[in-house]
Design goal:
The protein has helices at residues 2-10, 13-34, 48-80, 85-99, 103-117, 122-148, 151-159, 164-194, 206-215, 220-253. By secondary structure, the protein is mostly helical. It has one domain (51-253): MetI-like fold (Orthogonal Bundle).
Length: 254
């Protein structure tokens, strides 16, 4: 009986993942050994404070941007279900323009053009640009959630004498946001990675902190590897959370 269970134990997911991680670690070590490069890992601790500040700034910027983007995106999603055609057209134009132009370009325009007109700091301009960019994606996510809500519930709400606004905010929106929650969490992961572009306007986030450490030391590969590991450590648990949320939602539906 113990022998028959052996294959299933060997093929279990934790064992497979451990094996893959082990193989990747060995391959990475061999590649590092083959480089004609003098590794200086001992340099990294000297820049711990700078990197830590950059990491905290990245998290603050990402959470703040998603917070404001969620508010903007929720309001924008309401435009998509408006009964006025021109309002829906305005929504469509905004979404297409924001989603089909590079975030880097939007950040540069937001800081050097709009920021100079309204005298905005790099921090304010950066959060604004990241929030507007993210809001377009959140608006589409919530719009999809709204469309997933059974129309019969709206009709039932109207039958009970509820107004259109009451139906939207009390019946439709709570369900739409719940349905959209996995995708919204996934958008947070994307925003964390997108925040690295704010380094171009001298926002002291993780990537700029890494660049400063590299420019003041000879350890370029070491710091970039550390940078990638830090982003992975932040984003991977959130990505796993998205997967778990999606599984739970599918289980409820089935």
């Amino acid at each position: 009986m113990g022998v028959s269970n052996t294959p299933s134990i060997l093929l279990s997911r934790p064992v497979r993942l451990t094996f893959v991680i082990l193989i990747c670690s060995v391959v990475s070590w061999l590649l590092m050994r083959s480089f004609a490069y003098h590794w200086q890992w001992e340099t990294i601790p000297k820049w711990t404070i700078v990197i830590k500040r950059g990491l905290i700034t990245t998290l603050i910027f990402s959470v703040a941007s998603v917070f404001f983007a969620s508010i903007i995106g929720t309001l924008l999603s309401l435009l998509s279900i408006s009964k006025i055609p021109i309002v829906r057209d305005i929504y469509a134009v905004f979404i297409e323009v924001v989603r089909n132009t590079p975030l880097l370009v939007q950040i540069l325009i937001g800081y050097f053009v709009i920021g100079s007109v309204f005298n905005l700091s790099a921090i304010v301009a950066g959060i604004a640009a990241l929030s507007i960019f993210t809001s377009a994606y959140i608006a589409e996510i919530i719009r999809g959630g709204i469309e997933s809500v059974d129309k019969g519930q709206r009709e039932a709400a109207y039958t009970l004498g509820m107004s259109s606004a009451q139906t939207t905010w009390l019946i439709v929106m709570p369900q739409a946001i719940r349905i959209s929650l996995p995708s919204l969490t996934g958008q947070l992961v994307s925003t964390i990675k997108d925040s690295s572009l704010l380094s171009v306007i001298a926002v002291q986030e993780l990537t700029l902190a890494t660049q400063q450490a590299i420019s003041n030391s000879a350890a370029s590969f070491e710091f970039w590897i550390m940078n990638a590991i830090l982003y992975f450590v932040i984003c991977f648990p959130l990505s796993r959370l998205v997967g778990l949320m999606e599984k739970r939602m599918k289980a409820r539906v089935s």
